[in-house]
Amino acid sequence: MDADPLSEESQVLYCANHPGRETLLRCNKCNKPICLACAVQTPVGYRCKECVREHQKVYFNAAPRDYPVAFVVGFGVAAVTAPLVGLVVGSLGLVGILVAFLVGSGAGSVLAQVIRRAVQRRRGRYLPLVTLTGILLGVLVGNLAFLRATGLFPLLTLPMLVFTVLALAAAYPQLR
Ligand SMILES: [Zn+2]
Ligand SMILES: [Zn+2]
Asked: For residue 86, what are the contacts with CB-CB under 8 A and spacing of at least 6?
């Protein structure tokens, strides 16, 4: 009997997307050969981009209406609260900076949780970005409206800027 000199193991594989590239890797889900450029390292091993995308479709389960909901809730809450918080921490001077450090992250977390609940904890690929844009616009528009009404612009104090940055930094990762 002639043994095939190229056994299954020693056989050279070529990437399914790049026929010219030799590789030793296979996607651990669909088993197709992939080169390093096509491999995505996941917690369960190397996978091809197609399988990763398929997996993300299950992971990202946001409904289309979640985008406007997250945007509007982020915008609305930020527009109402930002000028008021700015007025309070801004009037405290140096103490305001301390207060901003103490409660900024917590306030951002609360806002993130309010928004997560509004979209029933669904996840979307662009949902964090859309939400963050809504919050930022809310902060700006809220402060501009406050400026028109009162002549004060509470955003532009050091304590409020510290507060805003900390709140956004805490909120963003929780929106994913
Ligand atoms: Zn695959
Ligand atoms: Zn490739």
From this structure: 143, 154, 155, 157, 160, 163
